[in-house]
Amino acid sequence: MVGVIAGALGLVLGIVALVKVGKANTTLEEHAPKIAKVDGIESTANAANDAAVKAGRDVVALRGNLKAVADEASAYMGALRADVDKLKEDVKKPAPAAAKGGAPAVAGPGEYVIKSGDSFAKIARAQGVSLADIQAVNAGVNPNRLSVGQKIKLPKK
To answer: Is 120 helix (H, G, I), strand (E, B) or coil?
Structure first.
């Protein structure tokens, strides 16, 4: 009899366990779409995290490139500034056209004082003489190195 009671009790417990497992399976099936949705969200979150990490690396690389470009631009601007300062100093210097005593150079008879933009050819045309004649009377003068205020000789017409 104890064996029958134990068997019956085991049978009842087995049936209760089957009912509970059935309910658990039903609940699991009901939650399967929600679980799939959570898995999808997790997958999307992981992809977004990977993209954010890559973007962070790209920002660091761009920051380095920007610094290099800024350094190069700064060096270039420094060189330009030095050039501008040199030009300012050149403008402040007195013109070499001054003769003794600080007075401007004045052409005497048969002379010409070089002005900005002058060349032997331009002077020859303006004075009505040939280029060869100007070169002949100024044999020691380099026509490529004329300076403002320099005196040259003019040939006789």
So the answer is: helix
Q: What is the mean pLDDT of residues 129-134?
A: 92
Structure token digits, residue 72: 């190069």
Homologous superfamily in CATH for domain 100-153: LysM domain (3.10.350.10)
The answer to whether the predicted template modeling score (pTM) of the entire model surpasses 0.85 is no
pLDDT, one tens digit per residue, over 68-103 is 999 999 999 999 999 898 888 877 765 554 445 555
Question: Which of 58, 3, 105 has the alpha carbon at shortest distance from 11?
Answer: 3
**pLDDT score, position 93:** 63
- Torsion region of 129: left, alpha or beta (phi above 0 gives left; psi -120 to 50 gives alpha): beta
- Residue 112 and residue 97: Cα distance in Å, rounded? 12
Spans of all domains in the chain: 1-93, 100-153
Residue 42, token pair as written in the block: 């997790």
- C-alpha distances (whole Å) from 85 to each of 7, 24, 82, 88, 89 are 110, 87, 5, 5, 6
d(CA 93, CA 87): 10
What integer pLDDT is reported at residue 22 of this predicted model? 87
